[in-house]
Specification:
Jelly Rolls, single chain, four-stranded antiparallel beta sheet, alpha+beta, globular
């Protein structure tokens, strides 16, 4: 059986956090110091306003959240909360960026470009 190197990096260099259903993992505008890999359960990412959560997106086991904001060096752009009891693996900014830089000086630039395009697509357009 082949192991996923991405998951291995998370498991070796991260901590686990358990969330109860409805618990907020992070809020829009907070500093993006961590990204998260959903180990079990399910998260919901949304743009909150005063009356409702808009544009919800589900993040399931095996998926990551928070990395785009970290790579783009900006505060979290969405609010993320647990839809069910959930366990996430936490990966610090220094570890993620260190892995990208260790892969080669070009890798961080490529990831930043991809992150910008993903962000544009999520906002309704891409160049």
């Amino acid at each position: 059986m082949t192991t996923d190197p991405f998951r291995e990096i998370f498991k070796q260099s991260s901590l686990r956090r358990q969330l109860m259903a409805g618990e907020v993992l992070y809020s829009r505008g907070e500093p993006s110091e961590l990204c998260f890999l959903v180990e079990t359960g399910e998260l919901e990412s949304s743009l909150p306003n005063r009356t409702a959560r808009r544009y919800p997106q589900l993040i399931r086991a095996g998926e990551m959240v928070g990395a785009i904001d970290m790579v783009l060096d900006r505060p979290y752009s969405r609010q993320v909360e647990a839809r069910a009891d959930t366990v996430v693996l936490l990966l610090a900014r220094a570890t993620l960026l260190g892995q990208l830089q260790q892969a080669g000086p070009l890798m961080l630039g490529v990831m930043q470009s991809l992150a910008r395009n993903i962000d544009k697509l999520a906002r309704g357009g891409c160049s």
